[in-house]
UniProtKB/TrEMBL annotation:
Pfam families: DUF1203 (PF06718). It comes from Devosia nitrariae. InterPro entries: DUF1203. This is DUF1203 domain-containing protein.
Length: 157
């Protein structure tokens, strides 16, 4: 199966950059990167040292509901290119030691029980493929196992 890896939608990233409130109803905070692990959830790259970035509460679901987790994410303060889903798993995840949480969601945007797992970087693609082979799974979210921050969305290609 071909997998598509998606960052935050461009329209939403642009809205936050223009001052839209986040999932907690707050204006995103502006900071300057020290270059030490500030991953942008739109381009799926890092915010370089000296560059401005936003910190905000993100809910990667269409509406509030009990399974719609909210968590902090980083976003380049200036426009950056959207990650191309056809490029596969972002390079920074291939070359990382950071474990990730993968969790499948149904068409109703609710967790599909039995799909949650913690994986090493070299297991991400294989495990996402297994989860997405289930007919009751519409997409997978990847989150940081250390901080539980939303990382990206994985769909069938």
């Amino acid at each position: 199966m071909t997998l598509r890896f998606l960052g935050m939608p461009s329209e939403l990233a642009a809205a936050y950059r223009d001052g839209a409130v986040d999932a907690n109803g707050q204006v995103p905070e502006l900071h300057i990167s020290d270059g030490k692990g500030v991953p942008c959830r739109h381009c799926l790259g890092y915010v370089s040292e000296g560059e401005a970035y936003l910190v905000l509460a993100h809910r990667p679901f269409p509406a509030p509901q009990p399974y719609a987790e909210i968590g902090p994410v980083f976003l380049h303060a200036e426009q950056c290119p959207a990650y191309d889903p056809a490029r596969g798993l972002p390079e920074r995840h291939r070359n990382s030691n950071d474990r990730q949480i993968l969790r499948g969601y149904g068409k109703d945007d609710r967790i599909v029980y039995g799909t949650g797992t913690v994986v090493q970087p070299d297991e991400i693609e294989g495990q996402a493929d297994l989860i997405l082979r289930r007919s009751d799974v519409a997409y997978v979210h990847m989150r940081s196992a250390a901080n539980n921050c939303f990382t990206l969305r994985i769909e069938r290609g």
